[in-house]
Specification:
binds magnesium ion; binds adenosine-5'-diphosphate; 5-stranded mixed sheet
Length: 585
Amino acid sequence: MTRTTIRVLDPDTVNQIAAGEVVERPASVAKELLENAIDAGATSILIDVASDMAGVTRIRVTDDGAGMTPEEAVLAFSPHATSKIRDIADLSAVRTLGFRGEALASIAAVAEVTLVTRPRGAGALAGARVVVRGGEVVETGDVGAPEGTTVVVEHLFYNTPARRKFLKSRNTELAHIYGVVENLSLAHREIAFRVVHNGKERMATQRSRDLLATVAGLYGADLARALVPIGGRLPFLAVGGYVSRPSESRGNPSQVVISINGRSISSRALAAAVREGYGTLLPKDRYPVAFIDLALDTDLVDVNVHPAKREVRLSREREILAAISAAVEEALAGHDLAHDAPAEPVQQLLTAGEGGVAPAPAASEPRASYAAGHREIVLSDKQLRRTETEGTENLLPAMEPVGQVAATYIVAEGADGTLYLVDQHAAHERVLYDQVAGRRDAAPGSQELIMPVVLSLPPKESAALRDAMPFLAAEGFLVEEFGRDTFAVRAVPAALGAAEDPESVRETIAEILAGESRTAPDRREAVTCIVACRGAVKAGALLTHDQQKRLLSQLARTKTPWTCPHGRPTVVAFDRRRLDRMFGR
Ligand code: ADP
Ligand code: MG
């Protein structure tokens, strides 16, 4: 950004600008300071927060942006002093995050602010330092300083005790600050952000053009992998970004992150448009994770609506909302359900017709002999019987099984002609998981083994097992030590069934011990997952028509039938419209 000088807006302009309180809490200070650093063209920004038990004590933001001259550094604290617009007409083309010229003045009115700045390209000694307390300039002077600006805010709300009293706990305030940085760093990938709290680095992003890389850096590679890119265009709008596969959903819309022209905004209408693109792919009370970038002609965005600039008003809103929904729907149609090209699942069904679609397992399935098939069916029966429950709530659309593909996927038909494919293992895993997790507070169902399974372990592992014994007992495993490094497993969680197979009991325990270093709640969760996975009907197991039906109805009664506990989909749907489209009808 080229530097333009700061001037005080004339009263007429001031009167037309949305007025109101911008400094509500420490996070609003962080937001205003960060926005100034971004507007100054910084490439890297450090946010250093200090807190004690009572709350946030200091916020310091350092940027390598354009900096200010000593005169500007003082003027910047005057109300309505800004370098970003000259009059109200400039607002329609404004690209900067700030434009009201009020943040520094408002912050300095309720805190002590120290500003150190040097303009880019000025000599090393051309730095200026200004201290403002309660709105009064209390100190100015020359200092040596690096190019760019540092603003330190201390004693926030020292002169407004009422405001101070309304602050939430320290951790809540910190969480808000982190949230502000997350949103701004998603909207401004060209900048490297680093957050330090009480001397410890809490967050750091790399400079990158790539939204997905930034998402991965902030929220982890697993989330990034669950996202699909979206794209859409109107003459005045470009929609970009990523949305989650339906399997990765949330209980509220807070992870629908939207930016318009680099401005991170909150908008129910836009979030609803994103949700709309999922149609029935998400249950009613679930929301996707989404990171949406909108590039919109600036004269269609009115940023002068909300004093903290969190909300904007859009012209041609209806077209914009529709374009977003369509972009999301298209991305999911192309990606999630079919995984690849839309023709592929059709191909699969056709080839499967030569033997893979098993109307009943008795009709021979190429890879399994009749006898083996029979054994599997008996086992599946036991597994499914364990998860039979009452309960009436039905969260899946009604569907009737048609058969099985590759002894792994149940093919089902919905009343409206929708084709469903259900991963039988993932589905039963979900059923088991819900049951085990649902019984958390009751004593875990435990089932005695007909023959105890004996484990002889190397010393390190037996030490781990010994440590884990009380925990395992709480989860329904009865393990006794009977001799040096030798243990007998006498009972297992009921969800595992009377696992006749000693090898599977050994593997289960080994898997639990491998995840040993986790914290207690994580560990419970992990054990529940392991037990659900081990106890579930396997992929490759033949199921009778009746068993398929039972599994689908058990799945429908779980709380989140659309995904397995690992977040993979249990059900994919091809609605009638889509099938017709594939066949060019
Ligand atoms: P606004 O951002 O709405 O213009 P502020 O009160 O936040 O109002 O800032 C006033 C002015 O001070 C800005 O217009 C800008 O010229 C200058 N300024 C503030 N922070 C910085 C910074 N970090 N780097 C360079 N200039 C800054
Ligand atoms: Mg500002």
